[in-house]
Amino acid sequence: MFKKETNKRDKKWEQKLEEDAAQRNTRKRSKKKGDAQSVVTEQPNFQSMPCAYIFESCCDIIKKLCAGNQMAVNEIMRTELPQRLISLLTNTPPLHPLTFTHLASLTKLVKNADDEIQHKMFEMGIIQALVKLLSFGYDDRKMAEEIVEAISSVVIVGLSKGSAAEPHPYRDILEKNEIRDEVDTIMNQQEDNKTKQKEKKQPQEDELKRVIDVLYKYGVQKAINERVRSITSMIIGWLYRSVPIPVRFVPPVDVNFTLNTSQYSGSDRESESPMRKKDKDKGKQKLDDKVLLQQQKDGMNVVVNLQKAALNGHDVDQINAIDSLSAIAECQYNHIYIASKQFLLTISQFILTADYDQKSSEAAVLQNALWLFLRLMQKGNQITQRSISDIAPHDRIKELANLHQQQNAFIDVSKDLISNAVKLHSWLADMAHMQRLAELKGKIVDKSAEERRKFIESQEEEDDDDESGDDKSKNGEKKQKMTIIQE
């Protein structure tokens, strides 16, 4: 009996397993059919948008080829591809909406090229093209950072085309060349459409702007974040090496601007009347607005942006920011913007405490900080030189200058760092010697003046004595005459 029941039960289980297997097979077949249908539907419609798909694919291939592949970059530069790519990306109105893949195909080509190729790309107009792309994508963080990094890479190559005291070779071209500010043009056309003008607006002369001004507008004034603003400020600083920086890039800032928050402490607010509290809240809001406005004004100043990056940026940004400030410091006129007391004090404190071991991230920043002080000393007037002499840590700089005498296998120090320290120490020593000579000369002058005063006083006393002697002789003669007459 038990065997019969088990046989029936086994047959039921076998039937159930067969049904489950059949259901799974049907599901798999339907899934494969659905997948095949989905694959077919996901294929690009070449008849409707062949150019967009092909352009996107080509840009993606170029981007991947150029990623760290110097040979691929050299081969691409032998073709007309870079020029065609620039033309397609900067075409207005754009053929396709600008994407990061489109942009990266050009920026990766620029950043991975060697110095010679980057110089050729500058001659092709790569900076003008990148600045135009920045005006398209300035409000996208990823795009904006990618663009300004590529521009800075090309501008740095130009720095090596001359000595540190010579102007940047690319500046004149970027100041003279003009491009259309497409954002302003589109806004003007939209305004014309609103006013229902029938004639299409033609490009006006005021829509053509200098390349460097468009770069400043979208990289500083309308920068999406501080990093874009800092890198753009570095670019402008490098371009104006050893020449006066235009006033439009360094608008006035309130360096002593502070907010006294003590008057808004909540210690006695509970005892104040509602009207008094309301008035204080209004005053606080006005000061908060003033702070925000001042911060916005400071952000428009290229030198202030560089100083912020030099003090608060990441390692690479610190190095480049101080290097850009040193380029501006090649012109004495620019020292009025750079040599603020608070900034120099902060740099001096950094020199005092920074690690000079080449393995440390601070070593390169320290090297550039010494170079900045050196250029301010060499190019500055007496006021700037005295400020540096008073603020600089003399003993620390002397220690850095003598590092070449120390033999330590565990510490590796850059030769350029030691060289900068030696030159700066020499200038500071000469400055101190000149000050001592001036003080000594002053003492000598004071002493000689005192001696002259005493001599004059003694002469006056002798004159007084002579006059009194003459009076006595005259009186004697008169008495003699009187006695003769009486006789």
UniProtKB/TrEMBL annotation:
What ranges does the record list as Acidic residues composition bias?
458-469
- Which domain of life, per UniProt? Eukaryota
Annotated region Disordered: the residues are 1-41, 261-287, 451-487
Q: Which residues cross the membrane?
A: none
Give me the stretches of Basic and acidic residues compositional bias. 1-22, 267-287, 470-480
The name on file for this protein is Uncharacterized protein
Species source reads: Streblomastix strix
